User: Fold these one by one.
Assistant:
Number 1:
Amino acid sequence: QVQLVESGGGLVQPGGSLRLSCAASGFTFSLSAMSWYRQAPGKEREAVASINRFSVATNYADSVKGRFTISRDNAKNTVYLQMNNLRPDDTAVYYCHAITYGEVQYWGQGTQVTVPS
C-alpha cells in the first residue's frame, strides 16, 4: 500500500520558517523523483520544487527560489521542504508527489501552510 504522509505545516508569521516532511512507503523511494506542489484557494495546483533520484538535480519555481530548499533522505524514505522567509502568498495546501521508476505517480493528502498578511 502506497503512502505519502506530509507533516510540518501550520501557521507562521511572515518572515518565518517551516520544514515540511513527506514520509513515503509502499514503493521504491530511492528510485523515484520527488516533488512538492501547492494549491492556494481558487488557484490551480502548481509545482514548487523537485529533486531527482540521486539528489543531483533540483528545480524550483521562480517564486520560491532562494527561500525554499528541497532535500531527501533515501535511508529514511523522506523528502523535505525547508521554507524560509515565508510570505502571505505562500499560503496554500502543500502536497508531496512521487514519480516512480516505472512512471507511476502518487500524491500525498496535503498539509496546510498559512502565512497571515
Number 2:
Amino acid sequence: QVQLVESGGGLVQPGGSLRLSCAASGRIFSIYAMGWYRQAPGMQRELVAVIRNGGSTNYAGSVKGRFTISRDNASDTVYLQMNSLKPEDTAVYYCKAARSVGMDLWGKGTLVTVSL
C-alpha cells in the first residue's frame, strides 16, 4: 500500500525557517491536489496550503506570505517552505493527497515546534 511520509519537522526559534517534505512510497493514481494540514494541541486539524494539478495554490490567511507550497509531479512529492515562523505555527503537520478515485491518503505527520 502506498504511503505518504513527511519529514523536515523540528525545533526552530521564532523568525526561523523550516522546509517540510512529503514523499510517496510509490506511484499514486488519480491525484488532483496535494496539501498540508496542521493540528495544534487541543485544536482541530486545519488546512495550511493546497496545490492543485494545474499549479494553482491556496493558503490559510494566517500563513499567507510566509509559507510556500510546491510540488514535484513526477514523484508525487510536495514541499512546504515555512519562513518567519511564529510560536502559533507550532503543530503536527500532515500531508494529504486528494484523489478523484479512491480514498484520500494522509501521512502520519511531522512535529514543528517554534520556541526560544
